[in-house]
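REQUEST FORM: STRUCTURE PREDICTION
Request ID: SP-0412
Submitted by: Lab K.M.
Chain count: 1
Length (residues): 66
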Amino acid sequence: MDAAHIEACRAKLARLNEQRTDLAGCLDRLLEECERGESHFKVYRQFKMYNDPALNPAMYGEKPLL
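STATUS: Completed
RESULT:
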C-alpha cells in the first residue's frame, strides 16, 4: 500500500468515527428525552410484500413493471 492509500483510509476512518460519535450523542439525547417523557418510541411493522404472490411478479409469472 502506498502513502496516498493509507491517508485516504485514515480520512475515511476519521469521518466514520465522527459519525459514530454524532449518532451516539443523538441516541443519548433521545433516551434522556424518553426518560423525561418528552419523547417516545413508535413501533413500525415490516411489510414483507415480496412473499405475497399477489404483489410479486416473480411469483405470479409476469415481468416486473420496471
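NOTES: Residues 3-36 form the longest helix (34 residues).
Reviewed by: T.R.
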